[in-house]
Amino acid sequence: MENLRIFIYCFFLFLFIANAVLAQNLIKNGSFEEVFPKQDERGIDSIAFDWKKLTGGSYNKRTFDLVTYKMFNNKSHIGIQNPRTGTKMVWIMGTVYDGKHNATYIAQKLVQPLKKGHKYRMDFYVNLGESSGYYIQEIGAFFSDKPIMPYFLKGKGTRIHDNYPQITSDSLLGNWNKWMRISGEFVAKGGEQFMVIGGYGSSSALHTKKIEQYKLNYHVKKLDPNDYYVASGGYYYFIDDISLNFIEVTNDVEKLTEIKVGESLIFENIYFDTSSARLLSDSKEGLESLLSTLNENPKLAIEIAGHTDNKGEADFNLQLSKKRAQAVGSYLLANGIEKNRLKPKGYGDTQPIAKNDTMLGRQRNRRVEIKVLSR
């Protein structure tokens, strides 16, 4: 009996520890509260442990200590905002005029590398600085297995933004008055251990909005007249409370051999360019997995169903979903799968699986599903 009690105790202790590990935030110092002081020309400030700032412009592979800001009702050259929690936060900036996008980023090495086929959820918060002349949409987080460094090409600016972030905002981030959450889920390719947060996309690809002068005049009046600068061609964003957590293990298309005829599963490892049916290179592994499953099960016939969220015109969404489904089908056809085993179909925004009133909900609705037609 005593041995049984010890076994039960150890079993539940194991479950508790396992749950704690799975719930661990893989971002170090995500609220920027762990700091050491630094004296600079503007007075006493703090440097955040575990973080670096990457900068573009004319610099080549430059990194700097990431400085935090204590705001609590204090004014700065960027804006007026209290940290979302605690007493510290940081900021990023970028310029978006004359056909260029130069930006600064914050970066760190994760607690541990991400595991292949595991799904993760990312959350962080941003707030537009009052001295911004623009606000943008594409603030996001990019994960990689190697450190990402800015490099400068004459006339082209920094190129970090050429990468496709796993997590990005899907709406313009134009709020001065409250913190805006950017969140999303993604499946790791495996080995990602470096993260970079900032603005992604070339100048021509960014969704931007210029702030009207009368609004700008109203907001900058609140700043210190001796210590502010209006970035007429750029943006500032405060950032706080960054988290990254494991959600679940995904087997993805391998489950096609297990589900019944008529049932569907979400094709996780498929990625498209924004508002486009162009398959991104990160989709190759997922497509190869689907191709392998179909080759190993020669009687398996599937419907490839494209879905979108409800942003934009319904007809555009319908056509986009059809084209994305056809893009997957075309890849399989080109690699030897018979046409009669594939049925690409687009549903647009007519079959949501989550509410479209949140960023995460819209992300879940933008998906490709694989339905078993026969086996």
Compact overview of the structure:
With 375 residues, the protein is an alpha+beta fold. The protein is 19% helix and 32% strand.
Put simply, the count of helices is: 5
Radius of gyration: 23 Å
Overall 3D form: globular
Q: By helix and strand content, what is the structural category?
A: alpha+beta
The helicity comes to: 10-25%
Unreliable residue stretches: 11-22, 57-61
CATH architecture of the largest domain: Sandwich
Domain count: the total is 2
Percentage of β-strand residues: 25-35%
CATH superfamily membership of the largest domain: Galactose-binding domain-like
The profile of the biggest β sheet is: 11 strands, antiparallel
* Intertermini distance: 51 Å
What is the CATH top level name of the largest domain?
Mainly Beta
If you consult CATH, what is the topology of the largest domain?
Jelly Rolls
Please tally the β strands and state the result: 19
